[in-house]
């Protein structure tokens, strides 16, 4: 394991840093019984590191959802159950991040709509940035993993340090302008699999949701670059700026440079990784397991409760899902 054991002020957990600026593996947690004191230390570690890795938690679906709910109100998958799509689990708070076809319990056909949609997860992104109320924490837990050597890691990028180290001109520009990012799930699906989703038009698929590009991460007080693959364009005063796409690409390329990233391998079922979408980006790392070995990962997603949770969006808007299982020419269409 890379990184060095650091002296921490923590009393009930031990933190092993995974990268010079963010991410840590945390030991000393008994997930059968996490005290208030220990939970507060986990929250503090999350504020500092943005990504915390916990090995062999021993948690099942129910324990995962119960533990997640301690972080705040949980999102659920109901709005994605459109076009006849059935839930895979009894618990609606669990999002399926794996490669299993729920109907047949076999590995997803790489040619299937869902496999094409999942390709978008291979691009660095912040979960739920396309929602009116964005997400704070994602808690991803392994249920079944490919054999070692076949990939399937999850990669992370430190978007706070990326903000701190923006080239001077870009930093000045972001601080001088009130730039708002318009986010769309259809956009990232299309980026991930352009041919399959050729007919999807992100500008009409569903209303985009808006969050500021540069904003302060409340738990740490540090600035963050809130970008990623769902970011479709950038606006100022309600209008798209003239070099929007160029800026989107420049910011994403800057934030995901190798020096800002770390990769987290999954070792055993019940390993869990928690990340804070308000200060890191993440992606599915891919590998030779694809189409061959089961990789069953399940995620809970916590609604942000910080002052910037709703960004520039109305709290009255109806939340919409993107139905990757619909025929591509209809995918993402409202009400499909
Ligand atoms: C997610 C996600 C990455 C992975 O669950 O939100 O992007 O490695 N997962 O599966
Ligand atoms: Mn994700």
UniProtKB/TrEMBL annotation:
It comes from Hypoxylon rubiginosum. It comes from the Eukaryota. This is Taurine catabolism dioxygenase. Keywords: Dioxygenase, Oxidoreductase.
């Amino acid at each position: 394991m890379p990184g060095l054991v650091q002296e921490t002020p923590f009393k009930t957990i031990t933190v092993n840093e995974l990268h010079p600026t963010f991410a840590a593996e945390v030991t000393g947690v008994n997930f059968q019984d996490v005290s208030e004191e220990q939970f507060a230390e986990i929250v503090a570690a999350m504020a500092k590191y943005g990504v915390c890795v916990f090995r062999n938690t021993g948690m099942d679906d129910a324990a995962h959802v119960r533990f997640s709910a301690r972080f705040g109100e949980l999102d659920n998958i109901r709005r994605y159950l459109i076009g006849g799509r059935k839930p895979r689990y009894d618990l609606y708070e669990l999002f399926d991040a794996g490669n299993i076809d729920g109907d047949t319990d076999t590995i997803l056909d790489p040619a299937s709509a869902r496999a094409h949609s999942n390709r978008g997860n291979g691009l660095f992104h912040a979960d739920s940035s396309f929602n009116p109320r964005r997400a704070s924490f994602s808690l991803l837990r392994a249920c079944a993993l490919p054999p070692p050597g076949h990939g399937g890691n999850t990669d992370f990028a430190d978007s706070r340090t990326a903000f701190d180290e923006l080239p001077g001109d870009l930093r000045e520009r972001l601080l001088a302008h009130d730039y708002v990012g318009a986010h769309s799930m259809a956009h990232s699906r299309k980026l991930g699999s352009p041919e399959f989703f050729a007919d999807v038009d992100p500008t009409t698929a569903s209303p985009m949701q808006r969050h500021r590009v540069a904003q302060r991460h409340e738990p740490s007080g540090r600035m963050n670059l809130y970008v990623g693959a769902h970011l479709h364009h950038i606006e100022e005063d309600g209008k798209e700026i003239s070099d929007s796409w160029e800026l989107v690409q420049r910011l994403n390329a800057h934030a995901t440079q190798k020096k800002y990233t770390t990769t987290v391998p999954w070792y055993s079922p019940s390993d869990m990784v928690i990340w804070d979408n308000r200060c890191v980006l993440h992606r599915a790392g891919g590998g030779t397991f694809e189409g061959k070995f089961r990789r069953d990962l399940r995620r809970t997603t916590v609604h942000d409760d910080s002052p910037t949770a709703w960004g520039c969006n109305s709290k009255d808007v109806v939340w919409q899902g993107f139905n990757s299982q619909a025929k591509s020419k209809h995918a993402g269409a409202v009400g499909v």
